[in-house]
Amino acid sequence: MRTLPIALSLVSLTALACASTGPTSELLDARRAYETARVSPDVRYTPDRVLEAKQALDRAEYAHEKDPGSYKEKSLAYIAERRAELAVVYGRYEEDRRAGAAADMQYKSREDALRRQAEKNAAETRRALEGTRATLGTVQGNLADEQQARQKAESEAAAAMASLKQIASVKDDARGTVITLDGSVLFVSNKSELLPIARQKLDDVAKALKDGDRSISVLGYTDSQGNDATNLRLSQERADAVRAYLVERGVAPDRIKAAGKGKAEPVASNDTPEGRANNRRVEIVVEKRQSP
Question: What is the pLDDT of residue 257?
Fold first, then answer.
């Protein structure tokens, strides 16, 4: 009489155990894979494959309901997981394919635009070349004229520089070409106004310098007599006077500057009248031409 209750108890426990059996790890993986595919932006081009993954997952869920933990549940869950993953992979592939097609189309469009621009540029270049050929003969003629004019100017400058040697000391040193003019010939004693003969000499200097492009420094000097401040002021005023006259005679003002040196840098002894006369001078320094 007690056998029946025991048997009923065993059946109840078995049913309870089956009802409490959860999804397999394969089914859980399939669910996660499908959910990932469902929300992924990569599958917007493959909705059919997402649907196939959902249908496969539904079959695995049904197998779980009928026989939890069974081989069929695991197999169908595996298939569902793979289909979900394939939906993502094919979605990415389709996106890449469309991007590649768009890039090809853009490349071809750009290539056509560049070809049309190149043809336009070539036509413009041909027209420019025709214009250049039309004026080339004139340019060549002008170039020959310019060369002759430059040679003439250089010859005149060389001749003017040679004539300077008759009225001034001309030498080359580390600073460049130095033209030294006797202060007593240029100015009245203790004055900075140019004498008439000084203007004649400076006309020759201006003729030699005005067509050049090198920088020029006009440096005024005195002897050692008198106080330093007076000598410095006088030497500056004399340098300024020479500079102003050279500019007036055609030397570009931005090429020439003036500085007073006072009794500095004597070239002779200040102990003798002759030495002091040599120290009272104006130097016009033409900078060296830079090597190419």
Answer: 96
